[in-house]
Design brief:
The protein is an alpha/beta fold. It has one domain: Nucleoside phosphorylase domain (Rossmann fold, 3-Layer(aba) Sandwich), CATH 3.40.50. It contains 9 helices and 14 strands. A 5-stranded mixed barrel has the order 5-13-12-6-14, surrounded by 4 helices. Strands 7-8 form a two-stranded antiparallel ribbon. α3 runs parallel beside α7. The relative contact order is 0.22.
Length: about 260
Amino acid sequence: MHEPESYHMNPVSAPLALLCSVPFECERLAAALEGAEPVTIGRKPGWAGRLGGTPVVLLPGGMGKTNAAHAATALLEARAVSGVICFGIGGAYPGSGLALGDIALATHAIYGDEGADTPGGWIGTDAIGIPLWRGEQGAVFNDFALDAGLVHRAADALRRAGMDARTGPFVTVSACSGTDALGRERGERFGALCEGMEGAAAAHVCAVYGVPFLEVRAVSNHVEDRDMARWRIGPAVQAAQDAVLALAQAWPRIRNTTPTEPNHG
């Protein structure tokens, strides 16, 4: 596993990376940055500064898996970070129990459509027999399991900030589910709470580099027959940024790293 040397040299003082899709999803965070300075990472504009005393890099990397992977790779090649939080809005699957505006934290970041469609139905990369990544823990196919302790501490930080976050698997897709049938199918197949378009790609890159990763989303819609009149994008965008601000403020405790503690990624 390749890991940037500087990441291990200075894990505590390195900034927390905050990665979203489009600028609309991070406007409030950008406005709240203390000592904000513009930065360009991978030819994409972002900002560096502090949120709640925590040094951060805020980067809207673009929509979809390719943009997310590019932004995360460019960022991790350019500088040391103490972790990456991928955030934004998402669609809640039937049976998730999530309401519009609710916050969710990923326990797994799952590629929902990497694989093959067959006469017997969709199969994942495990059935094909080709892993998407092979790390110290072995082969990883569609499912990138996130650090359980990190997720637990993040959920606790949100509760302390007055936000009740559900935890569970998230699915990442190239084409959003826009029918009742597909929403039920994907939700049941993966036992997932919600879907987005970037999380698994960012988690994948962070696994390659050995960097702590979280994904947090606020529910903008339910995954059903597509009707954007029912969506509540604005409130979800605000809720997601509120969650990120709380996580940034609590990051030293969430990361669970002290200046004398070695970091093994």
